[in-house]
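Researcher: Here's the sequence for the chain we discussed earlier.
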Amino acid sequence: MTTSRRARPEPSEYAPFYHGYVASVPEGDVVALLREGGRALLDALATVPEDRGGFRYAEGKWSIREVIGHLIDAERIFTYRALRVARGDTTPLATFEENEYVKTAGSDARTLSNLAREFGAVRESSVQMFESWPGDAWGRFGVASGQKVSARALAYITVGHTMHHLRILRERYGVR
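Model: Thanks. This is the structure I predict for it:
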């Protein structure tokens, strides 16, 4: 059920860096959109042959497997932040350097199907967490990467981030 507490966050609820992610999320219940976005990514990955997992659209760009590994890591980080904020924890949360995470994740040594299964499990966990929140959790604020952020904004960032990378997978990697 959509509530005003789950409504699209105001720009003051997140760092400007995340505006594109939040703005790209369509209208609707953010938890339902999170579930649908996970299915859309998994459906797209199901069309990619395993031997194409190492494809990079340009030198120095991530492979398809690395993009999926990045999505897994980022979702875990965004939802960890969301959990902390939703629970009222005001301890400032550190940033993460996505390129360093990709370098050390070892995603290219894994299969696409294995990465897809992990993403599916992480996404289902995210859906369950956001679904479980009481209404007041959505409006709580914390600090991540030195910027004020609401729990609601972190839900939208999680949805929008995956949408962003799915769009890139389609446009630059030829994933359908």
